[in-house]
């Protein structure tokens, strides 16, 4: 019975429930917002990765200022 977990008809039922809950008018707006959020997340993750690759400035222990 639970051999594959999700079967195609499960996904169909989930899609129908989502459409009934949110309505067909709000779904494109929600998808647009989700896409925008994903683009922002990707750009921030890339920026963090690029910042991590750059050498970090070391602090001078006497003055406390970055070199």
Automatic annotation (TrEMBL):
Indicate the quaternary assembly: The Tat system comprises two distinct complexes: a TatABC complex, containing multiple copies of TatA, TatB and TatC subunits, and a separate TatA complex, containing only TatA subunits. Substrates initially bind to the TatABC complex, which probably triggers association of the separate TatA complex to form the active translocon.
Residue span of region Disordered: 46-67
Q: Which UniProt keywords are listed?
A: Cell membrane, Membrane, Protein transport, Translocation, Transmembrane, Transmembrane helix, Transport
| GO terms of biological process kind | protein transport by the Tat complex
Pfam family of the protein (one): TatA_B_E
Instruction: Show the NCBIfam families listed in the entry.
Output: PRK00575.1, tatAE
Membrane topology, record value = Single-pass membrane protein
List the subcellular locations: Cell membrane
- Species assigned in the record: Streptomyces mangrovisoli
What function does the entry list?
A: Part of the twin-arginine translocation (Tat) system that transports large folded proteins containing a characteristic twin-arginine motif in their signal peptide across membranes. TatA could form the protein-conducting channel of the Tat system.
> Taxonomically, what lineage is the organism?
Bacteria, Bacillati, Actinomycetota, Actinomycetes, Kitasatosporales
* InterPro entries named in the record: TatA/B/E, TatA/E
GO cellular component terms?
A: TAT protein transport complex
Q: Which GO terms describe its molecular function?
A: protein transmembrane transporter activity
Entry annotated with the keyword Ligase: no
The molecule here is called Sec-independent protein translocase protein TatA
Membrane-spanning residues: 6-23
The record's listing under Gene3D superfamilies reads: 1.20.5.3310
> What broad class describes the main subcellular location of this protein?
membrane
Which positions carry the signal peptide feature in this UniProt record? none
Report which gene this protein is encoded by: tatA
Q: Which family does it belong to?
A: Belongs to the TatA/E family.
